[in-house]
Amino acid sequence: MLERNIETFIGCDADYEESKIVLFGAPFDSTTSYRPGARFGSSAIRHESFGLETYSPYQDVDLMDYKVFDSGDLELCFGDSRVALDDIEARADIIHNDGKLPIMVGGEHLVTLGAVKAALKKYPDMHVIHFDAHADLRQDYLGATLSHACVMRRCHDLMGDGRIHQFCIRSGERDEFRFAKEHTDMHRFDLNGLDELLEELKSKKCPVYLTIDLDCLDPSEFPGTGTPEAGGISFKELLGAVLKVSRANVIAADINELAPMLDMSGASTALACKILRELMLALLQNMEER
Hints:
Elements: E1 21-26, H1 41-48, E2 55-56, E3 61-62, E4 68-73, H2 81-97, E5 101-106, H3 111-122, E6 127-131, H4 151-159, E7 164-169, H5 174-183, E8 185-188, H6 194-204, E9 207-213, H7 235-245, E10 249-256, H8 267-289
Parallel strand pairs: 1-4, 1-5, 5-10, 6-7, 6-9, 7-8, 9-10
Antiparallel strand pairs: 2-3
Helix pairs in contact: 1-8, 2-3, 3-4, 7-8
């Protein structure tokens, strides 16, 4: 059993046994390719969440009406990606095995690999829905095969063709886009095709892992990230997409790549807090209706 964290995301201080969703932080950014700082994202989101209300006017629901447990940040080895990923996988294993839905808050995007490995043990037929500015399909980055620039390629190694669905992608090497044409379901620049995909996944009752790299957002709205890319979607577009995906059979999710000190206004952190609140509330409603 996991123990409650001292400081929790607002409204997420229920007991572990009675909670349907379990949050945990993965403060790791050792493979960041440009501006570091994402290791501080999870703690910043937790601390700054108290600038929010627990009530969502978007969905007319309140976190206080549900049970969510925040287990805090993992203590990860910054010098060894494999050790860090193993620790993430182990935490997600506990949550899955106890019949709860894990939501991980990064950290750089490589942390998703550990959580995906855990989810695949219980849901071997799952699909990944991936919101990101970057393809993350490199075979290696400067010789490192475990990098946030390679995370979807490593997930593909585990899952195979046709089960990774990528949206908002607007950056990557030519070889990544060539790889995507043959092996993933990539939707460049925006969210077109999401509705059709969700209908297909719902009809097949496919388990879904949702991974949100917050740099899918335009840097005019979300500058606090290590690799900002012009031409992104808006907060309202991401919110709408999160609410839609949450109606699918989501079995795990993550939010990553907030580097809070890169936006000293705090606006990027506040946006990340709101997306996390809305994601949890949407998933909780769907779980209740199942």
